[in-house]
Every structure is written in C-alpha cells, then in structure tokens.
Amino acid sequence: MPVELIILGVFIGLAFTSESITGFGSIVIALALGSLLFPIPELLPILVPLSVVMSSALLLRFHADIDWQLLCKRILPTMLVGMLAGIALLQVISSEALKAAFAILVLWFALREWYKLQRGILTRPKPAWWQPVWTLLAGITHGLFASGGPLLVYSLNTLAISKANFRATLVCVWLGLNLTYTLIMAWQGILQPSLPLVGAYIPVLAFAFWFGHAIHKRVNERQFRQIVYALLVLSAFAMLISTL
C-alpha cells in the first residue's frame, strides 16, 4: 500500500476515534487532514461510506441512548433539506472560500464556549428560531463538505443532553445523512472505484470504535464538553489548513 494511503489510515483512525467518543468529528477531521494528501473529491467516496459503517456499528451497540423525539422532529428533517441544498450549491459556488469562512466560524464558537465552560458562565436561553436555523445551516455545510457536525453541535448547545444521548443521537443523524450521500455517489458512479479502499480501512474503524468508547466511559459530563470543544478547534484548524 502506498505511504500516502497508510498516512490517510492514521488520519482516519484519529478522526473516527473522535466519533466514537463524542458522536461527531469523523469526516470533518479526516477530510481536512486527508486533503493535505488527496483532492477532496477523491476522499468523499472513501470517508462517507466509512462513516456509514462506523455509525451503524455504534448504533447497534448504543441505540437505546437515542433521543428519538429530538432526532425525528428537530434534527433529521431539517438537516436532510439542508444537505440536499448543499449538494446542489456545490455546482454554483466556490467551496474553498466558503470552507475557510466556515472554519473561522467554528473556531470562534468553540473557543468562546470553552472559555465560558472554564469560567462557569451559563449559556443563555436562545429564541425559538435558533435551533432550526443553525440545524439547517449544519445540513448545508454537510452537503458542501460532509462536515455538518460543528454547526449541529452549535445548534444543540443550549439543550440539556447527556453525553450518552448526545453521542447516540448525533451518530444516528450521520447514519441517515451519509447513507443518503453514499447512495447519491453510487448513482453518480463515483463510489464503486473506492470500495476496495473502504474495505481495507474497516480494521482501522474497529480499533477506533474500541479506543474511543474506552475514553467515553472514563470522562464525566464536564470533561466530555471539554473534549467536544477541543475537537471543534482541531476540526476548524484542519479545515483552514486544507484551504491553503
């Protein structure tokens, strides 16, 4: 296997360990780091199906933790509409400039929330439009970059969700969206050539599943939130690097 693909496997292991810990971060981290080695269009047919595999494995184990009302009424329908809009926008906009702006937004949010957590500053209640608008924007960024996690975390920031419910619900979102994305790529004919590589990286996912869950069990709710914000910062920096 070429050394570039081995390095990509390391990036995939790091990225999907983050999903096993928190429920998000897999594609945004792997895509940003992997884009240092390969063009993004070549990475998506590898990373999106891998996300489907990882999400399926996590949900088989932790489906009892899903917040179905939050998922079905407040997240998935809005995210799906946004994702389809994002896929359509790929044909008419410059994604690199938009990705840089998106990364800066995520970085600002993560650093602000980390500061508030360290200082014990309570998050103020948000108006009723807050969560659906940011969820829609999360869907659009998922369609553009397969990276809707940061803005979805932002949209859910004011809700009282346990770490187990948070992880399982977000993983269910990614399964639904990325399965749809995978089917679209298969219909476009760009998925099939990547399937051997997808199969080769399955053992990396198995390690990430085990290692990430071991970390998840050992952290409390406050530490969990710190990990989430740290991953958001890492994701934002990785996305900025990928635009250079």
UniProtKB/TrEMBL annotation:
It is found in: Cell membrane. InterPro entries: TM_pro_TauE-like, TSUP. GO terms for cellular component: plasma membrane. It is a multi-pass membrane protein. It holds the Pfam family TauE. It comes from the Bacteria. The chain crosses the membrane at residues 44-62, 131-156, 168-190, 196-215, 227-243. This is Probable membrane transporter protein. It comes from Aliidiomarina minuta.
